C-alpha cells in the first residue's frame, strides 16, 4: 500500500495536467462546433444534389452527418484519443523502468516486499491514474457537448459507450509500454519510446483512413477502437477490439513473467 | 571532432530504427498507390467534381490518382514523424549528459561549452539530414515505377526541403528548451508537448477558418503540400518565419547553456 500511495503522489501533477489539458481540448473542439456545423450544413446541402461518392470524397459520407453532434464528436474524438494514448504510453514505459534509470532499484529491491507486490502496486497506481483522467475527461466531454450542442440532439448512451472504450484503449498502451520496458535492457528516455508508439499507431490509422492500407490498420488500437463505429451503433466493433483485448492479456502475462526473472541493472 | 563522432555513434541506433520505420511506412503506403494510379473510374469522378465548390470550401480535394495528390495526403504525417525525431533529438542531445550523469565528466574536458554545443549541433543536423535523405530515397524509389514527371520531381524536391526546414525548426526548439529548462525530464516534456500543441492547433485551424491567424504558431501549416503542388514554390513569408525561429532557437542555446547551472 505504501508503494501505491508513493507512486500515486508521483503521478499527481501529471494526472492533473493531463486531465485539465484533455478537458480543455474537448471544450475547445466543442466550442467550434456551432460555426463548423453551419459550414458543414451548407456544404452538405450542396452535396446532396450529387451522388453519394462526392460526399464520401469530402469525408462527409456515411450515416452520420458532420453537422450532427455524434458525427462531429466522432471526428474530434480521434484527437482526444491521441492525447490519451500519449499519456498512457508515458506511464507504461515509465513505471517499471524508472528505478533502474534513476538508480533507485537497489533501494526498492532490498525492501522486504516481493516483486509480485511491487509490480501490482506500481501497475495499479499507473492504471488508477489513467482511470482518474478518464473519468474527469468523460465528465468534461459530456459537459462541453451539453454546453455547445446548439439545440441538436444526441444519444448520450452511445457517447458513454465510446468513452468507456477509452479504458481498454489506455490499457493497450499501458501494457504495450510495460512489455517493452521489461524486454529491453534499459529505457534511457521514456518520451522517445512513448511518442514513437503513440504517434506511430495514430499515423498508421490515419493513413489507413485516408489511403486505405487495410492490413497495416489491424495493428493500431486507433483502428480497433475507431470512434465512428461505436458512436453509430452504440457497441464495440468486437472483431477489431478483440485484437486489442488479446494483446493486452498476452502482454500483461508476458511482462509479468519477464519481470519476475529480470536481472535488475544497478550501479 | 571527437565529440561529433561520439554523438553520431551514440545516436546511430535510434537513427537506424527511425529510418527503418519511415522507409517501411513509405513502401507500404506507396504499394497502396497501385490501386489509385490512373484509375479511370476515380479520375472521372474527380473531373466531375464542381471545382468552384471545392475552392469555396478551401478543401481542394487532392487528386489521389496522381503521384502528387497521393503523396500530399501523407505529407503532414511525414512532417509530424520527422518533427518528433528532431525535437526529441534536440532536447536529449543537450540534456542527456545530465540524465546519464556524464555531465561532470563531459564538461570538465578541456573544451568550452560553446564548442561542445557546436559539436552536438553538427551531429544533430547530420542526423536530421540523413533521416530526410532516407525518407527522400524511400519515397523516390517507390514512386519511380509510376513514371514521375518533371512536375512531380519539382514538388518532391520542395517537399523534402520543407521536411528538412521543419526538422530544423523542431531541432532548434528542442535544443533551446533543453538549454533553458534545468531538469532533463521537464525539458523533454515541454519540447514534445510544444509539438503536440502545434499539431492540435493545425487541426483546429482546418476546422474553423475564423482563427486562421493562428497558423503562424504551427510549423505544420507553413508548407502545406497542396500549396506547394499548386504554386510550385515554398511561401516566402513562412521561409522567413522559419529562419527567424531556427536562428532564435540556436542563438538561445548558445547564449543560455554556457552560463547555466547543471542539474547533477
From TrEMBL, chain A:
One protein family per Pfam? ABC2_membrane_2
Q: Does the keyword Ligase apply?
A: no
Q: Which GO terms describe its cellular component?
A: plasma membrane
Q: Where are the transmembrane segments?
A: 15-36, 119-145, 157-178, 190-207, 241-259
MF (Gene Ontology) = ABC-type transporter activity
Q: Which UniProt keywords apply?
A: Membrane, Transmembrane, Transmembrane helix
This protein is called: ABC transporter permease subunit
TrEMBL record, chain B:
What Gene Ontology terms describe what this protein does at the molecular function level?
A: ABC-type transporter activity
Keywords associated with the record: Membrane, Transmembrane, Transmembrane helix
Q: Name one Pfam family in it.
A: ABC2_membrane_2
Q: Which GO terms describe its cellular component?
A: plasma membrane
Keyword match Transmembrane: yes
Record-annotated membrane-spanning stretches: 12-31, 67-89, 121-143, 155-181, 190-207, 238-257
Protein name, as recorded = ABC transporter permease subunit
The organism is: Candidatus Thalassospirochaeta sargassi
